[in-house]
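Handout for the seminar on molecular recognition.
Each group receives one record of this type.
Step one: identify the two inputs.
Step two: read the structure output and locate the region that could contact zinc ion.
Step three: write two sentences on what you found, then compare them with the reference statements printed after the record.
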Amino acid sequence: MSDNHTPGLGMCTAFGCPRFGTMSADTLGSGRWYCGAHFAGAASSNDAKTQIMRRDQVMPIVESINDIRACYGTPAWENGTKVAISKRLKAIDRADLLPNDLDVGIQGWLLRLELTVERLTLDAGQQSFVEPPKTVGIDGPTHAAEFLPYAEEA
Ligand SMILES: [Zn+2]
């Protein structure tokens, strides 16, 4: 049900997803396109993954991913986008996600950002077993025969 809508042009097919659709199982490219978080896994977890990506501490990373994909190599990149990404990531205390010497070019940085979001959404929507509460002994009547509220009337 989560996929039953028309996403914006170029956007992930999962309902409400803020990322570009960059992966498809259809080799002809005419099928549904998903972001890395929604590509694999059960459709039943799509909404939970979308919710995580839209959180205040994650959405700036998602916006940075989209900006790199949309603007790298264009004049906009050098005219503000690169700086905007840097400010955005620092604002959420994620300076660790800024480009570094270990990234192999822009693709390495983009991959690191995408894997960060993928890790955050990995367990989304999965149910976990909840231990039932332990029962304890009960003080009081254990048999109905001990409780005779109308004994005087008999
Ligand atoms: Zn998505």
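Reference statements: The radius of gyration is 26 Å. The mean pLDDT is 87.
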